[in-house]
Amino acid sequence: MSSFPVPDHMFDGGDLDCGSGLVLLIRENMLKTPIDGVLEMRSREATVADDLPPWCRMVGHDYLGNTPGDNCTRYFIRRGAAKAAEEEKALAEDKKQAREYEWRLRIRATGHLKSTVYCRNFSWDSGQPASFEEKDVHPCGVEQLFGALGASLCSGYATECAKSGLEMDDIEITVRGKLNNVLAHLGLEEEAAVTFIRALPHMDYVSLIDRRERTRLSEGEAARLWGRGEDGVERQFYFATRNQPFAVREIIGGRKVREHLRTHGISPGCSLVLESIEQTQELHKPGSAPVTISSPSGLRLYLNRTQAGQVVVKSDVRQGPQADAGQEDNGE
Length: 332
Prior knowledge:
Layout: E1 9-14, H1 18-30, E2 38-43, H2 48-59, E3 62-68, E4 73-78, H3 84-100, E5 106-111, E6 114-119, E7 122-126, H4 141-163, H5 182-185, E8 203-209, E9 213-218, H6 219-224, E10 225-229, E11 234-236, E12 245-251, H7 255-263, E13 271-279, E14 291-294, E15 300-303, H8 305-308, H9 320-324
Parallel strand pairs: 1-2
Antiparallel strand pairs: 2-4, 3-4, 5-6, 6-7, 8-9, 8-13, 10-11, 10-12, 12-13, 14-15
């Protein structure tokens, strides 16, 4: 049994650390805790144990300690009275600083088609602005941008899951993109406007399974398949070369993913051949023609024939003498 008092308010900080937004959440939740009341914060970030006690002393709260919880650590803080009047102002100031924060990076040309990026305690190499090759020594600038966007979404989603108490086995995001005018980006067209990112339709990987059955895989499904190409290099099927055999060795993901891909006829040990990449169809059911029902407002339903046969359409259109008399006529 815990020796800490029953908290007056509780929140989950997920895997945030004190330098990436956790302090803002603590301040905001502390305002929901009465003076001399106890705030419980749950966290999965190990550095909080070292950073939280000195922060509490600095702002006038009493750090009561921590205890292990269910896949987290439970921290207990008693709200102090000395600086209570300043807390709302301090929270507003912290939010203002967060909105105005400016990230700074330094980039140097460090070789042929290579630049090195420096920021804080990190450095990494970037290749040319854009590349059309299958292999390069360094990722190009466009790939680094898309990678940063995808990583932000992936990490942000994981944090929200942790704050909600959800345990995630695996999170994977596929990012695709193109430039409206890559020639302008490469400096091959002068005075051309550059619109950097535009949306792309979802694509299907039309594939042959064991050279017998054809199926259509989504981009996400293709990324789940890990194996070896004809060149002996291991990769995701997402990066497979067309018209070359690909031996599936592993399915990345949990039980549901494996069961779903099994409905396509795909399991470890099978062979795939990527025939083409085409824009996604409305239904992944070859041979079934859907019945489409559209409304004037643009709502569109795709049903099979059995489902469509069960639809009853009602109309309130007025017809004949009843309409002239202002009476309603609901027909089926």
